[in-house]
Amino acid sequence: MINIENDRSGTKRRGESHFGKKILIVDDEKDIRDVIKETLKVDNFTVLEAETGEYAWNLVRQQNPDLVLLDVILPGKWNGFDVYKKMKADKSTEKTPVVFLTAVAKEEKPDIKIDDRNYFYKPFSPIQLVDKIYEVLDKSEEPEVH
Amino acid sequence: MKSSLLLKKDPWQDKNDDYEMQINELFRNYNISTELIRQTNNQDELLDMILKEYIDRFNELPGVDFVDFEDLEEGWPVKEKLRSLIRFATQAALLKEKSEMFRRLEISNRQLNEATQKLNQKNKKLVEINKQYLNMLGFVSHELRSPLISVLGFAELLSEEVIGTLNAEQKKATNVIIRSSNSLIEMIQNYLELAKIEQGEMMLEKKPVDLFHDVLLPILEEMSELFEKNEISVFVESDKMLSSVFCDPRLIRVVLNNLLANAVKYGDEGGEILVHFVTENDPLKVSVTNTGDGLKKQDIKKIFQKFSQVEDTITHAGKSSGLGLYNAKYIVKKHGGEIWAESEVGKWFRVNFTLPVLNMNE
Predict the structure, then answer these.
(1) Is the pTM of this model over 0.80?
(2) B76 vs A75, B32, B79, CA distance in Å?
């Protein structure tokens, strides 16, 4: 029998392992970007923002972020999956980790294979999202095993 | 003979006045009434009846020799002529009746068709209205949820003192915001699922899922504050280590989330919630039990209905979409499982559901 303990310690500040890393937030809702931005700033991440897929792709190429938080439904021609495909097709960005933020209101079907672990569902807890970001960043630094 | 030619006319289209007149004439002349025809099925009998009447009248005329009806021979030409006329008249009368019936049938058929058409149009309109309503339901729910995400996010940042310290009062206020936003999101989520169910858009994305780590634990983590506030102890019990189940993790999460939210809502403060997995069989069984008032048998029947609110319990919460268990039932059934509830009034309430384990091929 497991009694679930309510343990929320250790959620505020973490080590300096990813200090100053660049995170690109792609979401058309400013309020949502703001929540994420505030949370990331506390942990000393550098935050970039994009509202559309096209602009996000520009920023990815110019700024080379360490991680991209990508909303699936975006205004304009490209959705999140399109940006992801562009990134995968480019040598300089194919290894950049991506975490999808999705509302799953409408069943969005990507035409590419995406690891489930790269999904984060709305509504989300910003603190859990930061945990996720740490987890993905930690993993991306591990040497790849084939 | 002219009369036999007339018969060849299409009797169903007796709009021809001449034709009708001729029949009527015939009937009048030979004193054959439909009534008379109906009295007997035997044409010979009919023939005799008519001849007898004629002869009787004939005999009444002054200066006419007596004709005996019994003496008339079979080959008598008048009799033959009459016989064929009667045959024709009988058929014509029957056909006329039939055509009248057919005409009436045709009219009512046409009326029926018109009514059906109107009904179809109305039905089409209703389907369209329902579609619009469901689209709107989905849209509104989605739009309502978006701002709530940032409300909830910032409230959490405040509450966790990520962006500054709070005094006790402020913390309390922030936690109320979080709780209310969470229950609002939960309600909206259920409306979104309903819209998908009703539009037939709920598709399962099945994959092997670790029910405990991937589904249950994240829910318990999210709800931990709610448990704490109601001083509820949560226990998880399993007969053995859970292997993975082939299901749609997001939807099974909706199910468990709804069951646990209900367990808190309708359970007693300071009580217990037990999540129990029985995995040795296929399908595996999951049950969520809470201590509390429970429900009477007649009320248990209602709880899986759409928009159900059991009257006794409305005082408990007053904030429920009435969709949680309806959606849960739909999702479980869609997975090929069963869901049912049981209770001991005054002690506990439990919802069980099953999930097939070995349907990897579906």
Answers:
(1) no
(2) 102, 20, 5
